[in-house]
Specification:
The chain has one domain. Helices cover 12% and strands 55% of the residues. Strands 1, 2, 3, 4, 5, 6, 7, 8, 9 and 10 form a 10-stranded mixed β-sheet that branches. A hairpin with a 2-residue loop joins strand 2 and strand 3. The chain is globular.
Length: 206
């Protein structure tokens, strides 16, 4: 079905941290105020995920994704330190060929460390991914663009805020999928030939 937010290793420079955090906190504050006023709700709803996100981006790649039942609409992920506008992509049944998932974090004294998972062909039921960047060669069948998010039915139990923008398709195929996201969930996720590695350095999926 994710770019990573780099953190300084070793001792923390509080002055540098303050310079980084001020615009971040200002943006989060603006999002909260906008949500409170109801303006953001005209385009985004709350994420279908039932958990608060860590806020870290991670990568998901696949040579080919094949899905039955597809919906997409804007959501906001909630984290301890802020709010994250994302595009929710829901697929009722998805198969991912040569799946790769990676997250890179900077660890004091060690530097960059990559946690990377591979599997093929992976299969997920009721797959939900909240992404802020998605690339690939896509083909949709029976697609409705601009449908009311409160009326989509492609994935049972996954709907957006009534009156907001969404799209729905009966099937989706994406070749050379490259996705950066903050959260993924699934009712079931089968990972044949699973291989998980933790390595020093940047070994991102793409």
């Amino acid at each position: 079905m994710q770019t990573s937010d780099a953190r300084p290793s070793g001792r923390t420079s509080w002055k540098r941290l303050a310079l980084v955090m001020v615009p971040t906190l200002a943006t989060a504050g603006a999002l909260v105020a906008t949500m409170a006023s109801g303006a953001l709700a005209t385009s985004f709803g709350v994420s279908a995920n039932s958990f608060p996100v860590a806020g870290e981006s991670f990568q998901i790649a696949a040579t080919r994704l094949e899905g039955d039942g597809f919906v997409q609409f804007g959501v906001v992920d909630r984290g301890r330190d802020g709010l994250y506008p994302e595009a929710l992509s829901g697929i009722r049944s998805a198969t991912l060929h040569h799946l790769c998932q990676s997250v890179v974090q900077n660890i004091p004294l060690l530097g960059a460390v990559t946690l990377r998972l591979t599997s093929t062909p992976a299969h997920a039921d009721r797959l939900i991914a909240d992404a802020h960047d998605l690339r690939g060669d896509a083909v949709f069948q029976n697609i409705n663009i601009g449908q009311d998010a409160g009326t989509v039915r492609g994935v049972p139990g996954v709907q957006g805020t009534p009156g907001t923008f969404a799209e729905q398709a009966s099937t989706v195929v994406i070749n050379d999928l490259r996705q950066t996201t903050r959260s993924v969930s699934a009712a079931t996720f089968r990972l044949p030939d699973l291989h998980l590695t933790v390595r020093r350095g940047d070994h991102s999926c793409f």
